[in-house]
Design a protein that fits this description.
Layout (H helix, E strand, L loop, with lengths): L1 H26 L2 H12 L13 H9 L5 H18 L10 H12 L19 H5 L3 H13 L15 H10 L16 H11 L7 H17 L7 E2 L2 E2 L1 H13 L11 E2 L2 E2 H6 L2 E2 L2 E2 L9 H18 L25 H11 L7 H6 L10 H13 L1
Antiparallel strand pairs: 1-2, 3-4, 5-6
């Protein structure tokens, strides 16, 4: 009898171990890969201004809370030198994404983008013709950059000033017949479609046109996703496509590991992303070895997922870097913030978009007097 019990117990342990291994395999080792990739990226050289080894590295580490003070300040010094050498707020003659990318990185590390070596990096984005000169990429990243801290668009003498409404309309007008977006307007490219969705995500719940366009794109991408969980961009499967789609779903607060639309044959977008895993990071094509660009994009996509699953603000919603309860935006929470909230509740003043985000009321503006009491308690606890 004892032998039978021991055998049954051994079988139970074996099945439990197999179940555990299956669960880890299905999860793809996300947490372990996330941590190990961060550890490697933390050893990278001081970031320079650039799309590789630059802003995306800074954004990923900053938004995951793993950037060192040395890397943060070293990058900022490099930006200062770069802007000083340019002698202009416009960082490239034709690519507005240069400004947008640097704005996002500086915002992520808490730097003032309106005074970088004496230049306001937002100013070039106020020229709509300059922004869309780069097509979809220009409009996408300008909108993401402007919304990252709910920046006011600077006044400009440009013939056609930028507005958020113009940027949104530009993006919606360029949704192609497939239901997605592509720089050649031919099909739903997962990279480009994912990025457009990221830029439109803040407007999804309050703009019906945006909602309809995004829903149509999600349907198309769900239909074109492969059984492996992968997406194909120009005939190839890459981790960048998975990263952009993963970031897009997280921006919409869609759990990519649970939404059945994006799980095919048991494989999710995350599973596909992790299939490109190599030592220290990710490869661009299977069996090609480590690739810095792929690693940086995969890491910030994993950061977007981590933030979603831990109830944190979206990757590019950086209003969470502002001081808590600082609704008057003077850099600290004090009794003047209480007074301002009371005035807002009494409809004696309005809040701008950034103030509403600080008050966790954006976009509906729903703030009541209990929020003023909450601030008072916070102040008294300091």
């Amino acid at each position: 009898m004892n032998r039978l019990i021991k055998s049954a117990f051994a079988l139970f342990l074996t099945l439990l171990l197999l179940f555990h291994c299956a669960a880890v395999y299905a999860d793809g080792g996300f947490e372990e890969k996330y941590s190990s990739t961060a550890a490697h990226l933390q050893t990278c050289p001081t970031p320079e201004v650039g799309s590789i080894g630059g802003e995306w590295l800074v954004i990923g580490l900053a938004r995951s809370g793993r950037i060192s003070r040395e890397m943060k300040e070293g990058y900022f010094r490099n930006v200062l030198h770069f802007v000083e050498d340019k002698g202009s707020a416009k960082l490239d003659r034709s690519k507005s994404t240069e400004n947008s990318r640097v704005i996002l990185a500086l915002t992520a590390i808490g730097k003032d983008v309106t005074d970088v070596a004496g230049h306001n990096l937002l100013e070039p984005l106020a020229d709509f013709k300059f922004v869309v000169k780069q097509g979809l990429n220009g409009a996408v990243w300008a909108l993401i950059a402007l919304d990252s801290l709910q920046y006011d668009i600077p006044e400009t003498t440009a013939q056609e000033p930028t507005t958020r409404e113009k940027l949104i309309a530009y993006l919606l007008d360029r949704q192609n017949e497939s239901g997605g977006w592509d720089i050649k307007d031919s099909y739903a490219d997962p990279d480009m479609t994912g990025m457009v969705i990221q830029s439109l995500a803040p407007y999804y719940s309050r703009n019906q046109e945006v909602k309809e366009a995004v829903d149509r794109a999600l349907t198309t991408l769900s239909e074109t996703q492969l059984e492996s969980g992968a997406f194909v961009t120009y005939g190839s499967q890459t981790p960048e496509s998975a990263a952009q789609m993963l970031t897009a779903l997280c921006a919409l607060e869609i759990e990519p590991r649970e939404d059945s639309r994006f799980i095919k044959n048991g494989s999710s977008i995350l599973d596909n992303l992790l299939s490109f895993s190599v030592e220290n990071g990710f490869e661009h094509f299977k069996n090609d070895g480590y690739n810095q660009m792929s690693t940086e994009q995969a890491y910030y996509a994993m950061t977007a997922l981590y933030r979603l699953e831990n109830g944190e603000a979206a990757l590019y919603d950086m209003c969470d870097t502002l001081p808590v309860y600082d609704v008057n935006l003077d850099g600290k929470a004090n009794i003047s913030d209480v007074t301002l909230v009371q005035q807002y509740v009494a409809e004696l003043c309005d809040f701008n978009a950034r103030q509403l985000k600080v008050a966790h009321a954006y976009p509906d503006g729903n703030i009541n007097i209990s929020y003023a009491t909450e601030i008072q308690r916070y102040i008294s606890s300091q």
